[in-house]
Amino acid sequence: MADQSTGLADPRLERDAAYKSAYRRLLTSPQGSFAVIVLAVLALLSVTAPYLSLPDPFQSNPSMRLRPPLTGGHVLGTDELGRDILARIVWGTRLSLGVGLGAMLASFAVGATLGILAGTGANWLDQVVMRLLDVLMSFPYVLLSIAIVAVIGPGLFNTVIAVAAIGVPTYARVVRSACLTLREEEFISAAVALGVSPARLVLRHYLPNLLSVLIVTMTLDVGAKITAAAGLSFIGLGIQPPAADWGAMLASGRSYFLLTPHVVVFPGLAILLTVMAFNLLGDKLQELVDPKFMRRNG
After folding, report:
1. What's the predicted TM-score (pTM) here?
2. What is the separation of C-alpha 287 from the centre of its chain, rounded to a whole number of angstroms?
3. Engineering a disulfide at 82: which of 8, 65, 115, 122 sits with its beta carbon 3.0 to 4.6 angstroms away?
């Protein structure tokens, strides 16, 4: 099939077929199926949390504080205020996934835009964008996120901003590098020679060919964003109590770890399982969308 805008053979059909084959292999692989199942369950919990028959995650009950699992109808026990840990973990799924996905999308939107401007624009624009990114990357990411929250204040929205800011350089550099490579391809040169507008060039030619790289980067980045947000909450600069945040649960329960370790173990396992699922999914996608792998198995 030919591309009507350039008259050249359109590689999109071949690419789409390769993607479909890769996704089938993803669902049939042990790592991929495990990650998909875990993330599907987490997504389902985050959506259905208000409708599940769970105790109120915010209701304190001092008479039931620090109860072990399977006591008094509390499957995972209670925390230092007598709140049900299972209910707080389920409700925390909404916060963790929301913050992780929201921060990732914000990083992607800003970083990809900067990367496209740098990779497809004039040399002076490339230099300006890259120097700004160099300044941003000169700060340690953890300290940068702490500094941002310290300036704008803690809270859900500000945590998303702080965590998103540290991911912008990664997307910008990945997209810029891919765009610089694509600029040398014949179909890009042909489109430019035919007078295709810059916006159409980006939407029809650059972005479709960036999808494989971006999908992998975005998937791996969600787990990193969840970890960063939990870290901010752990030190008291992220999502504030009484919100059911996994990082805040770790912070409030660490004083009771030796006495009742379940108050820390279960929120920690929730973070571990979620981040591991995203990382496994990202690693498998990276393997499947790799051009060499796709040519070998397509």
Report:
1. 0.84
2. 18
3. 65
